[in-house]
# Entry
Amino acid sequence: MSTVKAYAAKSATTPIEPFNIERRELKPHDVQLEILYCGVCHSDLHTARNEWGNTMYPVVPGHEIVGRVIKVGNHVKKYKAGDLAAIGCLVDSCRECDNCKEGLEQYCSNGMVGTYNAHERDGSGITYGGYSKQIVAHEDFVLKISDKLPLENVAPLLCAGITTYSPLRHWKVSKGDKVGILGLGGLGHMGVKLAVSFGAEVTMLSHTPSKEADAKRLGAHKFLLTTDKEKVKSMHNYFDFILDTVSAPHDYNIYLNMLKTNGVMVCVGAPSEPAHIPAFNLIMQRRSFAGSLIGGIAETQEMLDYCAAHNITSDVEVINIKDINESYERMLKGDVRYRFVIDMATL
Amino acid sequence: MSTVKAYAAKSATTPIEPFNIERRELKPHDVQLEILYCGVCHSDLHTARNEWGNTMYPVVPGHEIVGRVIKVGNHVKKYKAGDLAAIGCLVDSCRECDNCKEGLEQYCSNGMVGTYNAHERDGSGITYGGYSKQIVAHEDFVLKISDKLPLENVAPLLCAGITTYSPLRHWKVSKGDKVGILGLGGLGHMGVKLAVSFGAEVTMLSHTPSKEADAKRLGAHKFLLTTDKEKVKSMHNYFDFILDTVSAPHDYNIYLNMLKTNGVMVCVGAPSEPAHIPAFNLIMQRRSFAGSLIGGIAETQEMLDYCAAHNITSDVEVINIKDINESYERMLKGDVRYRFVIDMATL
# Structure
């Protein structure tokens, strides 16, 4: 065991603060990383404040982790000390169920092990995430990253990137498809970049007029102000696919009605209130309303390789870890373009 | 024009009663049918009583029509006097939009013309349905039927049959798939027969214990009493596909949670209340919630041919048209196995 500096929330109502954690001795297939950057995901805030009601304190958030390998177990073949590497939202799964065998570890039938706030499968304790100096994980859950992209901009790909890449790929978004991206935040800005790179005609759907310029700069071909009822109406039956990245409660029907026949709307954000959907809004054009959760390990690697090949990264604001609590407040106000990333050298 | 006996609702609160209607002179591509049987669909009742708020009185319901051709227009090639033929839920569409060109006339971008309670495209009036002695329609919206099956049992295929066939085909239900059919009524009993014939393992989902024997007789392999919480729990993440035929308000989440990863639940019934769906129930297993509306003309013909080849028909109770109002009351109580069909010789 090694003692490692970290930042933790000790309760739902106290700030995130310095905290020492233990990282396990390396098992034969383990990789130990020095964490260089860790992205700040809205899930970190939900968990720190127990907004999903399942937080085990103290919790060390962070699942957008990039770093450098400092040590590997005896049997590790994929990594050696000095390599760049990354860890995303999960660090283990049963590896035996049908989903794991198909590379869908995120849907592991026996429960995937999240990078933080999860029980280790061997009963050895609770996982601690990337707001820390080091992390240890099985090599099968460690990703390779390119040295050609700035590491701080790569970090958010591990959650915001894969969460948007996976549904766009699963539903085969490609050249000529009309795609709407709902919400321009950490997820939405990656959704725009990725969908544009796949050749889709991309429309940013937002209720904030000031986001139009940014959406266009990110590559969006169109901008639809969702408070403009006439313009919304003019886009009824328009989209093949809508990616809904919004976590705040909202009316899904406005967007469902913009789907053409056989259109699909996929939500990756989970508001606190259920969606209220009249069946007719689906029936009349054979529309689908679906959900998608991050991505499997193989697909996450595919996404990282794709982003390296196409020079796609996240727009970030690098912060000192002592400013983490302030960054949460700014994130709640949408005051970030588009992801905070902690420079772990500041810890 | 020819005057034809029919039954109509003249208001939302009066019984369906005898009424004479005019059928148009045959245009070059028109087919005139003598109606032999007409199925009684729940939509007939919704429309007669203006439960969807769009009824134009007087309304002659009925869109599960089988009959015999008595006359054809000069240019009709597909039919001749004496042929058996059928008409389903739609009698026209724009034929020019992308959906029409793809054989998805039911999703016509310019509005398909329903068999009753719809405006004719040429402005000549309102369509009247199958509770009548004769009907006239363009040959492209007339279907061929086999003389090998009893006509009264074929009639409900025109709505209940295609409404369940189309989503089962569109989502490629096939051998080995685990399929749940929710609700054992006119639609549900066709869903069971069709899904079984496609090779699926079929489970009837019902809150009525007494329906178990019937479900098994129809071919269902399993029966799940949906009020048994333990059994429901044991089928979490079980189904590839669920066809939801229920028109009464119900909790969709019980069934969504029974879908395995990538599972799809399709609703073909439209309750008066919206579905309330927490996004997490879709996100956690990449589930889809979709809708489907009847089927296009080519697919309806495919379904009729398939049913003839596989000896699949509806279980019906044949009624005298003077008992139509009583049959509505019995339908509301679920007191029909599984479709009323009017013998039009009684008119």
The longest helix of chain B spans residues 297-310.
